[in-house]
Amino acid sequence: MTAAAEQGGTGTAEATRQPMLEVDNLVKHFPIRSGVFFKRTIGQVKAVDGVSLNVYKGQTVALVGESGCGKSTTARSIMRLLEPTSGRVTLDGVDVTALGKQQLRKARRDMQIVFQDPYASLNPRMTIRQILSEKYQLLGAEVNRKTISDLLDTVGLAEEYADRYPHEFSGGQRQRIGIARAIAMNPKFVVLDEPVSALDVSIQAQVVNLLEDLQDELELTYLFIAHDLSVVRHIADRVAVMYLGSIVEIADRDDLFDRPHHPYTQALISAVPIPDPKLERRRERIVLRGDVPNPANPPSGCRFRTRCWKFEQLSESDQRRCIEEPPPLYDVPGGTGHQASCHFASLREVVRA
Amino acid sequence: MTGSADIDLDGPSAPLLEVRDLKVHFKTDYGIVKAVDGVSWHVNEGETLAIVGESGSGKSVSAMTILGLVPAPPATFPSGDVFLRGRSLLKMPEKQQRKLRGSQISMIFQDPLTALNPVFRVGDQIAEMVRAHQDVSKHTAKKRALDLLGEVGIPNPAVRLNQYPHEFSGGMRQRAMIAMALANDPHVLLADEPTTALDVTVQAQIMALLEKLQEDRNTAIVLITHDLGVVASYADRINVMYAGRIVESGTADEIFYEPRHAYTFGLLSSLPRMDKARQLRLEPIKGIPPSLAKVPQGCPFNPRCTFATDACLSEVPALVSVNGADHSAACVHSDRVAMAHEERAAAQ
Predict the structure, then answer these.
(1) pLDDT digits (tens, 9 = 90+) for A72-120
(2) Which residues from chain B sit within 8 angstroms of residue A286, using beta carbons?
(3) Using CB atoms, which residue from B204, B273, B285 is nearest to A285?
(4) Is the dihedral angle over the CA atoms B143, B146, B152, B153 positive or is it negative?
(5) pTM strictly above 0.90
(6) Of A93, A118, B6, B86, which is most buried with the most CB atoms under 10 A?
(7) Cβ pair B273:A291 closer than 8 A
(8) Class of residue A82 by CB neighbours under 10 A (exposed 0-12, middle 13-18, buried 19+)
(9) Do A209 and B271 touch (CB under 8 A)?
(10) Mutating which of B156, B281, B292, B341 best tests the A interface, going by the most A Cβ atoms within 10 A?
């Protein structure tokens, strides 16, 4: 069977099993420094501010949100490409946040990343063989001619490509090489940071299918970072929506798209145009006001309230609650593991209405 | 009004903007790159025409040519012309063309950060645009810039007027670009991927703004994009481009519900849909788009096409009407494509 059919079932009923990846209250703040001779810290950019999520084996969790919401920083902090300010990350029972430098390097075998820009993430002076072999050498594994040709074959590239340079490939092929590099050492967990955003529509589907086949074949666990919700609906089992450094809603895929409860999720989904003119003519878009606030100085209480369409409709006393009290992630009734951080969360149909 | 054009734009006869058999070729070391190879389209007042295609299909080059932004050499123009209300733009003396650019026809670019000058205040850049085409004082131009910033929905326009582009967010910059494009009340707005660099919620804001402006001013919009969702929501008519040619042309409904070219069909089938529960598998188009220096013989899409037969190899199919009206496709197998599409639609 295809990857799609198999992993479709692994979405929910796994509360008993140990998650492959556990992220607990992850925080990443960047200091803002000022001064000519003596740098003083004058503030903090709260890029990630308390993110918790679980990813089960063979599952794909998507992290979605607009630029600057902290989704990439979250992924990089999980992998310790950025040192988290606080919080705990456990990968297959190993506390990644507690590892020393040497141990971390070994642990990197198990966690890999595919970057968005296949043009910038491959060294232009190295052949594909060198790029891929480097991986094995760095992590102390054996590599020979067959390893590389098998690896290329896995991602759908012919062996004779191995001695070419990155500039000789198209965007889609480069992304395949990026994927080959990530899966080379049979990792347990792969971060896919906008892996298809830079690709043309006709190529995007090829790479999405490849990612699904590999997941099926190698039992990979994905954290999929994206802003394109159409791809997310296709590839993810669970979806977490981020806004200004926090998760505002998390649910199983169909639950999130068909029964969104947070006003931001609703606005986000309603803003995505669907390639269906008749449907588009009757769909109503929730147009948010203004821009995302500065994460160095986020609004008090609920961070979304400055742009929230629902906030405007609330009574003054209810509005005060949004201003003063940061909403926790409330359980959404009727959903399995569906949570939304809004004091006044309620269902609003936005995909087809 | 601007007073710069000698063209009678109120004459009813010809389409507002028409491109006829336009070819733009580039001489390179790898051979002649036929970026645009015989493209014709037109757009009228209040109408949105979308030009859809993947990177390298020639969709931007045709728009740039209209504004004289394609340097020659290396470009050559073996044939074709652009007409604004029936008058040839390309045959006009350079000086006269200059007057029309930015006043009758203006353009919004994809990347507002590189399109704005980083060392000048946003207000001054808009005022410069006003003064380039209208004989007004600096003060009046600045005041006009202020009004424009307000009109495109920038909060605190008086403050924003004196700021630099780096102080604007991405969405704000795109609004400033739109303000600049509107400075001289153009009749035609060429929008080249106006929202590609933006987040969806900001995209919704910008597209709503363009729709409102179009309604108020009856502007013709040429929307150049690769995003089929945006096209479905905002376009009246659509031209699908592949390898420098238009392969299918029709209304939005015709393109989405009755595609007649194998490429259009392939594109629609490969899209993941947000409104549908998961398909088992996406159906990608195999292969990659051709290099424009080495376009395949015959139908340029044939090596990637699932419908291709020997009939596709000899000649480039002409764009012919497929059902009487304006819906046309350049595909030998448009009947088979129609049947395949119906089967697909029925299966869903």
Answers:
(1) 899 999 999 999 999 999 999 899 999 998 899 888 889 999 988 777 8
(2) 204
(3) B204
(4) negative
(5) no
(6) A118
(7) no
(8) middle
(9) no
(10) B281
